From TrEMBL:
Lineage: superkingdom: Bacteria
Annotated ranges, domain Carbamoyl-phosphate synthase small subunit N-terminal: 3-133
SMART domains associated with the record: CPSase_sm_chain
Name of the molecule in the record: Carbamoyl phosphate synthase small chain
Protein's pathway: Amino-acid biosynthesis; L-arginine biosynthesis; carbamoyl phosphate from bicarbonate: step 1/1; Pyrimidine metabolism; UMP biosynthesis via de novo pathway; (S)-dihydroorotate from bicarbonate: step 1/3
Gene Ontology biological-process annotations: 'de novo' pyrimidine nucleobase biosynthetic process; 'de novo' UMP biosynthetic process; glutamine metabolic process; L-arginine biosynthetic process
EC number annotated for this UniProt entry: 6.3.5.5
Keyword Methyltransferase included in the entry's annotation: no
GO terms for MF: ATP binding; carbamoyl-phosphate synthase (glutamine-hydrolyzing) activity; glutaminase activity
Species of the source: Crateriforma conspicua
Class of this enzyme: ligase
Cross-referenced InterPro entries: Anth_synth/Amidotransfase (IPR050472), CarbamoylP_synth_ssu (IPR006274), CarbamoylP_synth_ssu_N (IPR002474), CarbP_synth_ssu_N_sf (IPR036480), Class_I_gatase-like (IPR029062), CPSase_GATase1 (IPR035686), GATASE (IPR017926)
Subunit structure as annotated in this protein's UniProt entry: Composed of two chains; the small (or glutamine) chain promotes the hydrolysis of glutamine to ammonia, which is used by the large (or ammonia) chain to synthesize carbamoyl phosphate. Tetramer of heterodimers (alpha,beta)4.
Known catalytic reactions: L-glutamine + H2O = L-glutamate + NH4(+); hydrogencarbonate + L-glutamine + 2 ATP + H2O = carbamoyl phosphate + L-glutamate + 2 ADP + phosphate + 2 H(+)
């Protein structure tokens, strides 16, 4: 007998289905992702902490899961919602079924619900708080729990997914080694990039390393002095979950470093760089999550198809004089990238590291690389 699960939203709607991962109960902001593939990268992207993610593509799990295509040690999201799990997983790299991956990682999944109806509701009313439960609670109690649950706004979720300590990224070992073990000495003449980690996706250090940088990761809440002590040639500000506004410690650190070295920010990192320069952020109605989001690079006139996962955005009206818009989201005209007018600091709201997704935006890592060597981007 399949175990019953229910997804209840704060607007009173309840979607019954089958449990297909761990059992229990979680609350979170219910959002949707339109990617047809890449579910394992989505599950392990720490930026989804605090969220229950719905896949709009109806069949998920057909190529299974493995231990390689992960963007972090383990999933941080609250729950996972799909229409249907593929009955078989078939791929030469597959090691486990999606449902087993969820069970192993203690993530509650629900399948067999009308995801189109759910997503239409979110599109019309906006992202909502919800409860995903495999308990036998009645609908009214679940809706009451959804209504009583904490909203994402104003919460520092990044602290829940930051690394415990500073580390260096080692591609060969495909793992983190601590800064102390690795030593602080520059290896050869490789540029040294220090990453402020707010729950960084692992494809970012892979990209930075593949361009010949030494990469040191520090927690997102370290001070500017701690970062300067590492003698960086450039600063990278990572993606991460939740509302950027409460991360005042990061704004402070970035504002102290922005005139000292080249800076590149992705997603939460873009929001934090903008906040540090004096801009403001706001919550989007339902956000952008998928792998085919069109963006215009105003500096070249080229359109790129991008991977995105964000629910907040930089408010164009609040942009200070020192920042200019470099990229725009073509679906809704929101700010998708900014740069400092006089300093080598820039950021994008989307994910040039992709994983999963198209590779159109890899050029942004080249731009950062050029700024590290002092040549024009
Ligand atoms: N992927 C991210 O870094 C997300 C940024 C931020 N948490 C948002 O939702 O807007």
């Amino acid at each position: 007998m399949p175990i019953t699960a229910k997804l209840a939203l704060e607007d009173g709607s309840v979607f019954p289905g089958q449990a297909f991962g761990a059992e229990g109960e979680v609350t979170g902001e219910v959002v949707f992702n339109t990617a047809m593939t890449g579910y394992q990268e989505i599950l392990t992207d720490p930026s989804y902490a605090g969220q229950i993610v719905t896949m709009t593509y109806p069949e998920i799990g057909n190529y299974g899961t493995n231990t390689v295509d992960v963007e972090h040690h383990r999933p941080s999201l609250s729950g996972f919602v799909i229409r249907s799990e593929s009955r078989i997983h078939s791929n030469y790299r597959s090691e486990a079924a999606l449902s087993d991956f969820l069970k192993q990682n203690n993530i509650i999944g629900i399948s067999g619900i009308d995801t189109r109806a759910l997503v239409r509701r979110i599109r019309i009313e906006g992202a909502m708080r919800g409860v995903l439960s495999t308990t036998d609670l009645d609908d009214a109690s679940l809706v009451a729990k959804a209504k009583a649950s904490e909203s994402l706004v104003g919460r520092d979720l990044a602290k829940t997914v930051m690394p415990a300590q500073g580390v260096q990224w080692d591609d060969q070992l495909h793992e983190w080694i601590t800064v102390d073990e690795a030593g602080q000495q520059p290896s050869g003449d490789q540029p040294h990039v220090v990453c402020m980690d707010f729950g960084m996706k692992w494809n970012i250090p892979r990209h930075l390393r593949s361009r010949g940088n030494r990469v040191t990761i520090v927690r997102g809440d370290v001070s500017a002095d701690e970062i300067l002590a590492l003698k960086p040639d450039g600063l990278f500000i990572s993606n991460g979950p939740g509302d950027p506004e409460p991360l005042s410690y990061a704004k402070q650190t970035i504002s102290e470093l922005v005139d000292k070295m080249p800076v590149f920010g992705i997603c939460l990192g873009h929001q934090l760089l903008s906040l540090a320069c004096g801009a403001q952020t706001y919550k989007l109605k339902f956000g952008h999550r998928g792998v085919n989001q069109p963006v215009l690079d105003l500096t070249t006139g080229k359109v790129e198809i991008t991977t995105q996962n964000h629910g907040f955005a930089v408010d164009e009206k609040s942009l200070p004089d020192c920042l200019e818009i470099t990229h725009r989201h073509l679906n809704d005209d929101t700010v998708a990238g900014v740069r400092h007018k006089t300093l080598p600091a820039f950021s994008v709201q989307y994910h040039p590291e992709a994983s999963s997704g198209p590779h159109d935006s890899h050029y942004l890592f080249e731009r950062f690389q050029s700024s590290l060597s002092g040549s024009p981007a």
